[in-house]
Amino acid sequence: MPLEGYTVDYAEADNGLIMHDGKYFFKAVREGDIVTFATNEENERHSWVQALYRATGQSHKPTPPITLNNKSSQLNQTSGQKDQIDSDRSKKLGFDEYIQSDPCKFDHHDLFKTLQTATLDFRLNDPYCSLGWLSPGQSYVLE
Fold this sequence. Notes:
By secondary structure, this protein is of the alpha+beta class. Helix content is 42%, strand content 13%. Strands 1-2-3 form a three-stranded antiparallel β-sheet, with helices on one face. The two termini are 43 Å apart.
C-alpha cells in the first residue's frame, strides 16, 4: 500500500466493523479515503502506528488515547486477570495442548535429537550460516 499522502492516527473502536480479534484500532486517512486497521494487542497497535508515522513523514505525531476505563483497568488488573489473558493468547497460538501436557510423558532425549537435527539441517541448507557449525554465542536453553 503506497503511504504517500496518508495521515495515521489512533482510532476508537468502531461498532459497525465486524472484527474477530480486533480490539484496538487505528486509521490511515487521505483526502476522504479512510483505511481502518485492527490489532488484538495495544502494543502491536502502537508499533504499527509509530511505523506508519515514520513512513508517512507526517508533521502531526499521533498520541495514544488515554481513557478512564483503560487507566482503571490497568490499575485494578490482578494476576488472575493477567493469567487469563496469557491463557487466551496461548489458546489462540495453539500452545495450550503443550502447556497442559505432562512433561514426564515425553522422551526428552528424542526431542533434543530431533531439535538438534532440524537445526543443523537448516543451517547446512542456509548459505548465510557458518556451514552448520554453531557459533560461540549460540546456545540452547532447554527446560
